[in-house]
Specification:
The protein is α/β, with parallel strands linked by helices. It has two domains: 76 residues, STAS domain (Transcription Regulator spoIIAA); 234 residues, no CATH class. Helices cover 72% and strands 7% of the residues. A four-stranded mixed β-sheet has the order 1-2-3-4. Strand 1 and strand 2 form a beta hairpin.
Length: 360
Amino acid sequence: MADAVSSSSLALSGPVTLDTLDEVRALLDQAASATRVDLSAVTALDTAGAWALLGHRGMRIEAAGPVQALLLRTVEAALPLPPARTARPRKARYWVGDVLAAVGAAVAGFLTTSAQGLGFTGLVMTRLATTLVRPRRLRLTALVHHMQEVGLNAVPIVALMGFLIGVVLAFQGAAQLRQFGAEVFVVDLIAVSILRELGILLTAIIVAGRSASAFTAAIGSMKMREEIDAMRVLGLDPVELLVLPRLLALVIMLPVLGLVANLAGLFGGGLMAWIELGISPSQFRTQLLADVDAAQALVGLSKAPVFAAIIALVGCQQGMLVKGDAESLGMRTSRAVVIAIFLVIVVDALFSVFFALWGV
């Protein structure tokens, strides 16, 4: 290949192809100061040669034939664009506008979530009223299945939790009451704490983490596989088929689980009081029956249906909101657990205030 180089131009001759690519690139590098490339004497040009010529973007290509010009334009259109220059990230600053925008977005998200929850609750209550009028519409097989899943299968973990809570309360209460010689009142501490508050509250939290996530994952998976859309096409109601059995199963079984937690807590507290304070089981039972009445247990268990409805509605609603990807399923599952536990604690606080005002 022959070439002629001047201070501002480079004239190439012969083939500019893949076979001569190294020689062409060497010539282009030697003529780095040239601003023009003359192709009038080039006899052959392929994509490799065009790529080499276009790689030196500071050079203007001249005297290219029609076929060569078309090839150069085609190769140039296929070349990747140079990376865009990005501005350096400014230092993190929280301006007043940014704070207001963040607060506004949070408030708007909260209101949207609340409105969706109220709308879904109203829809479920409408379907429940229809089912009460026409009991044959209730799927008993699904109801029994979910009662086993949310109730019977949760008994071991709930009983263990209640037992450990009773042990902890007895141990900590004994350490404090021993200073005043009032060890016997540890029975009242255990009974009132477990029967009135901790038994059903911690049971609801465990069920929220266990069942709300399961409801969201099950319904969300059906939503991803378009099974819920298929139900609607077939004229079936997804709320009636999927939500009501789960809701009723949890409303029925959560009081039972709360009772299991209460009995396990009293057993654990009595065992630790016997070991730590020497309070015999008969003395524990006598003190329990003398100072604690059934109203304390009824106060705690009366919260169970409300907690159950909250957990079931939140879990099923988040499942219905799942989109078509796995990321949405994971996000909705974790959100269901967080929202359910938060609402359970808030409602428990409202119950405590209500019972205190009414002197219950």
